[in-house]
Amino acid sequence: MDKLNNNIDRTWIDAWNHPFIISGPCSAESERQILETAKRLNSSYVQGFRAGIWKPRTKPNNFEGVGKEGLEWLRKVKKSTGLMVATEIANAEHVKLAISFGIDILWIGARSTSSPFIIQEIADALEEENNKIILVKNPIHPDIELWIGALERLSGKGIRKLGVIHRGFYTYKNSRYRNQPNWNLLLNFRRLLPKIPILCDPSHICGNKEGILDIAKKAYHFQYEGLMIESHCDPNQAWSDAKQQITPENLFEMLKQLTYIEKCDQKSQKHLLDSFRILIDELDENLITLLAERMNISKKLGTLKKSSDIAILQPNRWKDIMKKSMNFGKKLGISEKFLEEFFQLLHQESVKIQNQIQ
């Protein structure tokens, strides 16, 4: 871990006196779309232009990117605007092609980060091009060791201009986010690897336009070094992820609002208090979501009991739940009295729901 930390070259991001912003469409669709979006971005705030050239899809027969042709469009963006250009890579061939077209920033997607074999292939392909900026998105699931392992494989091939992109984590439960932020995990990452720049990707965390500013504010609050936000010259007509893309003008207004947060005292007691509140708010949202799911199962259970003529109250089952919960809670240092009162309320609500089944 120390070797990785000490091997990081931060010159690519420390050269700027404000957060590093990468923006552009989810995917390249046409030369016109790419150039128009890039030219409408405000270069006073934005340093990098992004566009997906190869789009990994869960199922076949969906739009999977324009491929090599889109790299030429990115090269034209670089020439006409002076912005650095960025795209996602997922194998050695992508690396070779992206480098041949002068792409400045290569990022590795969440699916690829989850596979050590893919990461190693990419690292091997980059060994002779170790001056490129390589950004690694977090793996799909909240596995911090897998994320760090990807960075270590890249660093092992001499790549020093590394950074990470926090795009949120898959969650099995319903959530207002497309991908759960899990801010506490990012704080742990920062503690383990304090020298690695962190950019936040609010677009993929939210999955919609409405929540982007709120997530960006939280990222600035936790002193992230930058943002990757998807923008499109005509978001409603986007070929992929239309719901989470905004116009370049919307992005500009958003970034102006965020400049105030940069000036706040990051070491004040209020800042520390707000940080804890953000963590608690996220946990509370998770608790409420889980409670809702538990009550939905209670409804299904009540329907099954009614159709099978089974009594709603099952004393032995209730005693078993309480015993296991008390033992588990004790191991975690939770007050037995609190747990008992909590489960009593939970049980009462569950019984009430089941009794209401017609």
From TrEMBL:
<dbReference type="GO" id="GO:0046417">
    <property type="term" value="P:chorismate metabolic process"/>
</dbReference>
<dbReference type="InterPro" id="IPR013785">
    <property type="entry name" value="Aldolase_TIM"/>
</dbReference>
<dbReference type="InterPro" id="IPR036979">
    <property type="entry name" value="CM_dom_sf"/>
</dbReference>
<dbReference type="InterPro" id="IPR052899">
    <property type="entry name" value="Class-I_DAHP_synthase"/>
</dbReference>
<dbReference type="InterPro" id="IPR036263">
    <property type="entry name" value="Chorismate_II_sf"/>
</dbReference>
<dbReference type="InterPro" id="IPR002701">
    <property type="entry name" value="CM_II_prokaryot"/>
</dbReference>
<dbReference type="InterPro" id="IPR006218">
    <property type="entry name" value="DAHP1/KDSA"/>
</dbReference>
<dbReference type="Pfam" id="PF00793">
    <property type="entry name" value="DAHP_synth_1"/>
</dbReference>
<feature type="domain" description="Chorismate mutase">
    <location>
        <begin position="267"/>
        <end position="358"/>
    </location>
</feature>
<keyword id="KW-0808">Transferase</keyword>
<protein>
    <recommendedName>
        <fullName>chorismate mutase</fullName>
        <ecNumber>5.4.99.5</ecNumber>
    </recommendedName>
</protein>
<dbReference type="GO" id="GO:0016740">
    <property type="term" value="F:transferase activity"/>
</dbReference>
<dbReference type="Pfam" id="PF01817">
    <property type="entry name" value="CM_2"/>
</dbReference>
<dbReference type="GO" id="GO:0004106">
    <property type="term" value="F:chorismate mutase activity"/>
</dbReference>
